[in-house]
Amino acid sequence: MHDEAQRGLAAADPDLARWMQHIGPLALPTATSDSPYTSLLRAIAHQQLHARAAQSLLARLAQLSAQACPDPEQLLRYSDAELRACGFSASKVAALRDLARHTLAGLVPDRQRALTLADAELIALLTQIRGIGRWTVEMMLIQTLGRCDVLPADDLGVRRGYGILRRLEQAPTPRQLADAGRRYAPWRSLASLYLWRISDARSAPPDLP
Q: By three-state DSSP, how is residue 162 classified?
């Protein structure tokens, strides 16, 4: 499948093909053992924070709960003060509580059920939770469920990467990127990985003008 994805993307976009050769092979997303609940809890911690700061919050939460990730019932037993002491802001505490309540109510699927649901179904379900937007669910689809055809068009890095790829004066709008990205189906997740790398690249391929 990896070789098929590489060939498919290269054939769909010659400009991207040159960047792919310049960057080198990137692995397709693969599913992890995390549940959607765990993935979304971690995503809430990471919102608007540097990765190291978010990891510090999660480490303190793990110390409080004596496990890597507290289950929803346990999370709801903590007071706001206890969660704030871990470093979570008031808005993040509210989002964590809403995530736990929706998980207990059955809105958040377990991992086995999530694997059977389409991307659009999961986005529609999970964006009902406070603090969870489309981008957060798309990150879960790629990084936790290993979905191969997700293009997070709201992501600034992906948009910037596409602007560099096309040598645009400014990054495309989310809608423009979503429309342009249709050519990358069914490998849009891999295309996203390359666009992130292009956004971070210090130099362009030597054969690009």
A: helix
Strands (E), 53-204: none
Annotated catalytic residue 98: no
Task: Give the pTM.
Answer: 0.88
Asked if 149 contacts 186 with a C-beta cutoff of 8 angstroms, the reply is yes
Question: Number of folded domains in the chain?
Answer: 2
CATH number of the CATH domain containing 88: 1.10.340.30
User: Which domain does 189 fall in, by range?
Assistant: 2-29+151-200
Q: What is the pLDDT of residues 50-86, one digit of tens each?
A: 889 999 999 999 999 999 999 999 999 999 999 999 9
Does residue 41 sit in the same domain as residue 127? Answer: yes
Each residue's pLDDT tens digit, 85-108: 999 999 999 999 999 999 999 999
Report the distance separating Cα 58 and Cα 86, nearest Å: 8
Amino acid identity, residue 199? S
CA distance 133 to 165: 27
Residue from 71, 155, 200, 207 carrying the catalytic annotation = 155
**C-alpha span between 155 and 180 (Å, rounded):** 15
CATH number at residue 193: 1.10.1670.40
